[in-house]
TrEMBL record:
MF-aspect GO terms: oxidoreductase activity
PANTHER family in the cross-refs: 4,4'-DIAPONEUROSPORENE OXYGENASE (PTHR43734:SF7), PHYTOENE DESATURASE (PTHR43734)
BP-aspect Gene Ontology terms: carotenoid biosynthetic process
Protein name: Phytoene desaturase
NCBIfam families: crtI_fam, hydcarot_desat_CrtD
Keywords noted in UniProt: Carotenoid biosynthesis, Oxidoreductase
Gene3D superfamilies on file: FAD/NAD(P)-binding domain
Amino acid sequence: PPRIGIIGAGIAGLAAAIRLRLEGAHVEVFEAGETAGGKLGELVLGEYRFGIGPSLLTMPEYIDELFELAGEVPGEHFRYQRLDTVCRYAWEDGTRLDARADPQAFAEEVERVLGVPAQRVLATLDHGREKYDLTGRTFLEKSLHTPGTWLTSEVGHALTRLHRLDLTRTLHEVHQRDLGEPHLVQLFDRFATYNGSNPYRAPGLLSMIAHFEHGADAGAFVPEGGMPAIAQTLYGLASRLGVIFHFETPVAEILTRKAGRRPRATGLRLANDREVLFDRIVSNMDVFFTHERLLPHAPAPKRVLAREKSTSALIFYWGVDRSFPELDVHNIFFSEDYPGEFEALEAGTLCDDPTVYVSISARYDRRAAPAGGENWFVMINAPFAAPEQDWPALIECTRERVIQKLERMLGRGLRDAIVEEAVFDPTTIEARTLSHRGALYGTSSNDRMAAFMRHPNYSRHVDGLYFCGGSVHPGGGLPLCLLSARIMTEVMARREPLPHTFDAK
Ligand code: FAD
């Protein structure tokens, strides 16, 4: 069978390994870190466990799909539950709102707390679903770099409904128009941050994101064993199928040879100088660093690689020695000046009053904290890393502001309850996962052309080289990374089909 080498065991690298193995290839994965998962890894501080990155799971069906493809029953290896309350929102003026997953319950709660008619909220969610129905299958589930994608009835239908996509308005303008009430506009605007964008610049089309959380057949889910368990369960599946993993084995170069018009990938040179030959290479490493570090002599798609990055994050992982029953799994403490928060991010810095997200996985995974305690993942949006930023100074003043804000809004002390702590800033995120500039979601979606300007799932410069993961099409976030592996496998099957002779030995 063809031999395929995969660089990186992030969620997309794992999904790619499973799919390509099932297509009949011999698959080996080279991962620089000690375990699988990349951004989906785990951090242990004393008796407290934290997911390093993702805390919100949407569309778990893309994970189930991998077990089903392998002929396994998903629920036997990977279990999850839908949350009734997706997020608990708090504003400085004392307003509190529990966003229920059920659209009707959510809309009624909005009407009760904010006075916006439930019908208007439901219509807004419906409009988000319509946008997703019109564009989702084309833009998120298919390669945009294959002519066949554009010759479908779905694209034809979407073209007749262009006026419904809000392409000429920003996300914020759409929410102002449709919802009006300031708290609710802010709540819906926040969905732009789900792919690291700015609601005051991102196109109105992104209002479909709300539908992923509040759609009748969608929602927020919590996996048994916490978020890092997702990576471990996929690693288990890949291993059962016969994928070979090499941990603590960074790749130093993609080997190529001259072949016709373009060079062809022939294997990998590892950091220990060993060379391993492959017929095809898949990079799950950030596409920018793949080019800069592993292919220094090959031509690069400079315009695509220079695209604006998504935002990054400043994260405080706090082991807290007491319980805060007033908090839920996901909690948001909004900034009083949301435009100012995004202006600061665009200027490469942090504002004085950032929106604070607190996620407590111990609410559903008791192993994550000792009895009576809680594991707080406290995140604020941060600009992508740039040389002029002074992170130690920014962390020091922001930590103080965050503690003061939480104490003020919770009406009780927090400072003394923090018994374990770690802090990640954009430079830490870049160093740990080799994500260019610490971007959480690859390139930003701040302009209308963003979807078209992401790197394709194959290389136009090196034959036999493919890409998956948050830095390439269709973008970052766990569901899209899983889709990137699916699209990459389909693209590979069209360009150089695999034999389809799966043999698990
Ligand atoms: P990554 O996770 O980036 O993994 C790439 C892997 O490649 C790493 O393991 C790295 O070690 C390895 N690697 C890199 N270079 C080499 C090399 N030269 N040799 C060998 N191995 C190499 N998404 C959500 O859906 N919900 C959320 O709530 C959410 N929150 C987030 C919060 C944070 C703080 C972060 C950082 C991300 C968040 N995301 C969230 C985004 C999500 O985590 C990512 O989109 C996704 O995990 C990226 O997966 P990936 O497959 O692109 O690879």
